[in-house]
TrEMBL record:
This is Helix-turn-helix domain-containing protein. It comes from the Bacteria. SUPFAM superfamilies: lambda repressor-like DNA-binding domains (SSF47413). CDD domains: HTH_XRE. It holds the Pfam family HTH_31. Residues 18-73 form the HTH cro/C1-type domain. Signal peptide: none annotated.
Amino acid sequence: MASNVNPTVRRRRLGQELRRLRELKGMTAEEVAERLLVSQSKISRLENGRRSISQRDVRDLCGVYEVEDHRVVDSLMQMAKDSRQQGWWHAFGDIPYSVYIGLETDAASLRVYEPQVVPGLLQTPAYAEALIQGALPETPTTDVEKRVQVRLRRQERISADEPLRLWAVVDEAALRRVVGSRLIMREQLERLVEQSQRPHVTVQILPFDMGAHPGLNGQYAILEFPDAADSSVVYIEGVTSDLYLEKAHDVQRYSVMYEHLRAQALNAEQSRQFIADIAKEYARH
């Protein structure tokens, strides 16, 4: 796959354009589905970028929407072709959260709240392996190793020439929970301090004594993209399926929650000292 082609983002962008064309035509997804003799759910999946879209699908939809500009049709057809290419993550086989990886790969910034674990982009290999083994106890060793390798590949965004802007608010519980061993935890917290010193990485800790806060409902991440045509996405990880929120009012609500989390957390320097102190506690035992 060409390095500048991200199939996940291409599908989202194409879906957004197809939705725009449908709305300009004043048609509902149900009406389009009836015209094409397909299910309404297929039209919805094509528009939200969760389903691969063929050039034939694009041609048929453009016909329904009476798109007469051949340049527009050709551009959409090319996007459909690009969206069917494979991202680097496909080389690792079936990855449950491949849609998220595609979004993260193309994102310009990522704001994440983690109540239980160290964010994946900041994990050491040993911590990642112990975490995956503990969270998925019935997973074969080969699959655990594959997941670790994918996580490490994702981390390349942090050290890229145009790095991802990462802002992480992490609950104290993630620092206290012993994943693997005390040695693994010490090394992980030392890595966290080291990574937080990068100019494009900010880590803030929410201590226990802060009490109730807007993040008590659980983990979430907000992804923003360099192209204004790509709307921001709120990602909520699940056990059997994940949730992606793209509506403006949903993104706004989670963004406001995140601002409250950042305001209640220790600042960056205080957080580094807090993490370093806990790392020393692991070293003493």
